[in-house]
Amino acid sequence: MTVPFQKYHGTGNDFLIIHADEHVPDRGELAERECDRTDGVGADGILFLALEETFDPPRVVMTLVQPDGETAPMCGNGARCAAEWAMDRTGTDSVMIDTQAGTLRADRDGEDVVVEMTDLTFDPDAIPVDADEPVLREEIEGLEVSVVNTGVPHAVSFVDDVDDVALEEVAPPVRHADVFPKGTNVCVASPDGSGGFRQRTYERGVEGETESCGTGAVAIAVTARRLGLTDADPVDVSPPGGDLRVSFNDRGRPTLAGPVEHEFDGEVAVEPPVEP
């Protein structure tokens, strides 16, 4: 048996979208199999979405299952893809997104989809990280990082040039460090010369570098402002897959803006093939 999917990406951060009503016996197994870029469709995760059109604006319930088969509470680019999917189906320019990290509002702004992110925190208990006070510019497993939760944990390191960092070597020890009981994403950022930053991110659950990470872009922007590295608003953040923009609205919450593209549609088997 197969189920239909739509493939979307936000600045290269790509996802299979499957309607939550579709019968998938084991979502984790499906994500492990189909997110594989060699033997599956290839993606940074599967978004299971349920659309509730009776609300104004419409609501979409988002569950992200990552390539390791685990569920992540939040994903910035995933939320933007979910918003585009829902707006395509409802003919609206605004939707509400229910995630495990909270409810977000998303709006279309020209070519971009803008999502208001969850409340961020540097509080160690809320991240979580084993520390008595906020971790700002402290060395963990050989990398100087600042730690923040923007829906998911991030360890952010500011470097001279992100291209000079062997991310696949330096990130895993930090991602798995004992001080992070639930693990962490690892971001490196370098100034772009105009108040913004270039970004590379090693993502927990993907267990590798991704073309873009929305919660990581927000983590870089809010940490840079906390450390006095920029006073720009918006803060431009450029991962390998494109350009994102982090702003701060009148409620003091960050917003994440950037393009979203619908790549193609297809079908996947809901159960693994039987071995001969």
Automatic annotation (TrEMBL):
Major localization class: cytoplasm
Source domain of life: Archaea
Pfam families in UniProt: DAP_epimerase
Disordered: annotated span: 233-259
Pathway involvement of the protein, from the record: Amino-acid biosynthesis; L-lysine biosynthesis via DAP pathway; DL-2,6-diaminopimelate from LL-2,6-diaminopimelate: step 1/1
UniProt binding sites for substrate: N13, Q66, G76, N77, N185, E203, R204, G214, T215
Site residues (Could be important to modulate the pK values of the two catalytic cysteine residues), renumbered to this chain: H154, E203
Reactions this protein catalyses: (2S,6S)-2,6-diaminopimelate = meso-2,6-diaminopimelate
EC number per UniProt: 5.1.1.7
GO (cellular component) term, any one: cytosol
Active site, UniProt feature: C75 (proton donor), C213 (proton acceptor)
A GO BP annotation: lysine biosynthetic process via diaminopimelate
Task performed by this protein: Catalyzes the stereoinversion of LL-2,6-diaminopimelate (L,L-DAP) to meso-diaminopimelate (meso-DAP), a precursor of L-lysine.
Family: Belongs to the diaminopimelate epimerase family.
Name of the protein: Diaminopimelate epimerase
Species of provenance: Natrinema salaciae
Upper classification of the organism: Archaea, Methanobacteriati, Methanobacteriota, Stenosarchaea group, Halobacteria
Gene: dapF
